[in-house]
Design goal:
Layout (H helix, E strand, L loop, with lengths): L4 E5 L5 E3 L2 H4 L6 E5 L5 E5 H12 L6 H11 L3 E3 L6 E3 L2 H7 L4 E7 L2 E6 H24 L4
Antiparallel strand pairs: 1-7, 2-6, 3-4, 3-5, 4-8, 7-8
Length: about 140
């Protein structure tokens, strides 16, 4: 399980070192994909496969399902960590997430998220301001 929040820096080639706590679960193939709120998701390939399988269970005649499936799969890339624990982020995905230099690497249960540091700080502050109301609404409909 991926937990925590870490600050790192992209190098000139678009590589970032993953936190040591995350590397043990990120062995073998990884998948980097676009995520919500303008971040990137990094999954172990097996977990990403399970995620895509859930997307594939939906009716292809529904344009919303097609749109969501395309969003998560069209720019996704399969990769591996290098010998020093770095992952190379393709230019197109760096542009999508607005990644330039300083990044926040956050754990989100079954995946890692990579955010532009300033965007993460803003998002996290807004979330903290509203989390009680959001949690209450989810609890009211039985999801918490």
């Amino acid at each position: 399980m991926f937990l925590g929040d870490y600050q790192h820096t992209l190098d000139a080639k678009g590589r970032v070192s993953l936190p040591a706590k995350f590397r043990g679960e990120m062995t073998g193939k990884l998948v980097i994909a676009k995520g919500f709120e303008g971040c990137l998701y990094i999954y172990p390939a097996e977990k990403y496969g399970e995620f895509v399988d859930r997307l594939m269970e939906r009716d292809d005649f529904n344009p919303q399902f097609r749109k969501v499936r395309r969003f998560f799969t069209s720019g996704a890339v399969e990769t591996e960590l290098d010998a020093t624990g770095r992952v190379s982020l393709p230019q197109i995905l760096r542009e999508y997430a607005g990644l330039d230099k300083d990044v926040s690497i956050t754990g989100n249960g079954d995946r890692i998220e990579i955010w532009d540091n300033a965007k993460w700080t803003e998002y996290n502050g807004h979330t903290t301001d509203n989390i009680e109301q959001d949690a209450e609404e989810l609890a009211d409909i039985g999801l918490l």
